């Protein structure tokens, strides 16, 4: 279980994350919604170790991870697919995936790469191409595949559908469903609320660094409240 308890974070004097709590069990997808600038990305950065929390705690299956650096969070099984995707533009598809495999517990082998290529034939076709020659959709697939090969326990995915064609968005969402099926905890930030909510077991809405609404993805009343509060 992922347990985030009263997490706070600052940028200098700006108190951006003001005591956000959340729990998630294996195989749950939690949607994080809210307008621009309310602290969703900051929440992810703080969980992933890119930003040191000023208070609160992060534990995963009972292990305290609060304040760990990104490398250490990665080794503990917390992975992030950031909004800008962060693939290595000058490295080939295969080299990008090899870097993902390095984060894998219990070593890696060629068969793990083959498994990824079976799942993402398009990446197999482009395995020798540099990351920056891929389309936006292919880059998103690569970013997600790179995380999946490490078989993390928690994946934080920030706005994966941004700038992508509807067909690719459907594919991205299908991958998230697969992650859930594999027992991964997925925290998902999405502006595309109407579509994303159907993926989510539960959701939380942030406003000015605080949770103002939580609910269940398949509860009609909760969904209505969600759409009302976001005015979408
Ligand atoms: N590196 C930074 N230094 C100072 N302030 C920052 C920094 N990054 C973000 N902020 C501020 O912190 C607040 C929360 O930003 P954050 O990016 O977490 O919001 P968000 O909900 O993810 O929004 P968006 O959807 O626009 O990414 C905003 O007011 C933003 O301007």
TrEMBL record:
Q: Which domain of life is it from?
A: Bacteria
Q: Where does the ABC transporter domain start and stop, copy by copy?
A: 2-230
Q: Does the keyword Nucleotide-binding apply?
A: yes
Q: Which GO terms describe its molecular function?
A: ATP binding; ATP hydrolysis activity; branched-chain amino acid transmembrane transporter activity
Q: Which InterPro entries match?
A: AAA+_ATPase, ABC_transporter-like_ATP-bd, ABC_transporter-like_CS, BCAA_Transport_ATP-bd_LivF, P-loop_NTPase
Q: Name one GO biological process term.
A: L-amino acid transport
Per its UniProt record, what Pfam families does this chain match?
ABC_tran
Which PROSITE patterns would you find in this protein's record?
Answer: ABC_TRANSPORTER_1 (PS00211), ABC_TRANSPORTER_2 (PS50893)
Alphabetically ordered keywords of this record: Amino-acid transport, ATP-binding, Nucleotide-binding, Transport
Q: Which PANTHER family match?
A: HIGH-AFFINITY BRANCHED-CHAIN AMINO ACID TRANSPORT ATP-BINDING PROTEIN LIVF
Entry similarity comment:
Belongs to the ABC transporter superfamily.
**In its UniProt entry, what is this protein called?**
Branched-chain amino acid ABC transporter, ATP-binding protein
Q: Which organism is it from?
A: Planktomarina temperata RCA23
